[in-house]
Amino acid sequence: MKSLVIVPAYNEETNIFNVVTRIKSCLDDVDVVVINDGSTDRTYAEAVRAKAEVINLPFNLGIGGAVQTGYLYALHNNYDIAVQIDGDGQHNPEDLKALINMLTAKNADIVIGSRFKDKGTYKSPTMRALGIKYFSALVSYLCGKNFYDTTSGYRVINKKAIKLFSEYYPQDYPEVEVILYGCRNGLKIEEVPVEMSKRQAGKSSITMLKGAYYIIKVTLSLLLIPRRKEAIM
Amino acid sequence: MRSIYLFISITFSLTTLVYIKKRVLDFKLSMLWLTIGISTIIVSLLPNLLDKIAIKLKIAYAPSILFLCGILFSFTLIFSLTLTVSDLKKKLSRLSQEVALLKGEVVNK
Residue A232: which of A174, A131, A162, A136 has the closest Cα? Predict the structure, then answer.
């Protein structure tokens, strides 16, 4: 099966080389594409140095736009599996095999690398932990199925989901919304426990000030997702 | 005073028409402005019209109809602009994604 690892990166010059080389050392039969989301630093040069394919967006589209570019790339190049992994080094590429195996074993359309299912030593700051719990409860209720880590950006998806997300993918703060969107469109979603470390360097894109906006925006978009299925070509 | 109002209304309508002819203004959006221009011409030609409408609608102060129309018009315009901006944003995002993918293909060939 043709697999693609999508690494969205915005100003990640310090992490991107390590992230790409670690992915390549863990899995040798995958292609890695770095979506350089209008970075102003040396992200492009570092990604090229790590021998990744690099797609340069002309300006910053935000995480949703960048990830969707990766899915479009996967669709155009006929990949069977697409992995989304953050460019900041939080996600451990050693878990990739487990995620991909789960996708094929359980015949799932999306597999999420979860910090809180079963094991996991990841401790998030208290305010963030509250937000994460709130969204797990809300998404679990709306989907009618338990989800433990809705904000994780560590995901593996199959062709059916690639097609769906190429058509529509939320532009800002997409992680939570995508789960419900997938559920509503009949995708089977599973979670696999993974370990996540704190950011290796740089700053997270979500500050305390943005937190309130995040919660309101995501809650509203969850409640407003259409109930009908969208046609998957 | 009436002739001043009339002059302003006609100038406004003519400017709108000139911009439509030059294709600077999108026709769909300019319909709103044309409607406003023509309505102001009518109101300045028939000043009693406002009073009659005010009596019909039981509005004590006739000029407040103008304010009401102005506010409603502004809301409609802002809303239609927001729709246009959202649509443009979506298209711009998709366009930049496609450009980036194409550029990647060209570079890798």
Answer: A162
- Chain A: give the shortest CA distance to residue B99, in Å: 8
Q: Which of A54, A55, A171 sits opposite B93 (nearest CB)?
A: A171
* A233: pLDDT strictly greater than 80: no
* Residues in chain B within 8 Å Cβ distance of A221: none
Instruction: Enter the ipTM.
Output: 0.74
Distance, CA of A102 to CA of B102 (rounded, Å): 33
- The ranges of chain B with pLDDT < 70 are none
**Which pTM does this prediction carry?**
0.81
Query: How far is C-alpha B69 from the geometric centre of its chain's CA atoms?
Result: 13
Q: Report the chain B residue with the minimal C-alpha distance to residue A76.
A: B101
List the one residue out of B32, B34, B40, B43 whose CA is nearest residue B13.
Answer: B34
List chain B residues with CB under 8 Å of A35.
100
**A149, two tokens:** 């880590």
Q: Which residue bears the tokens 């790339």?
A: A73
Phi first, then psi: what are they for B86, rounded to 5°?
-60, -45
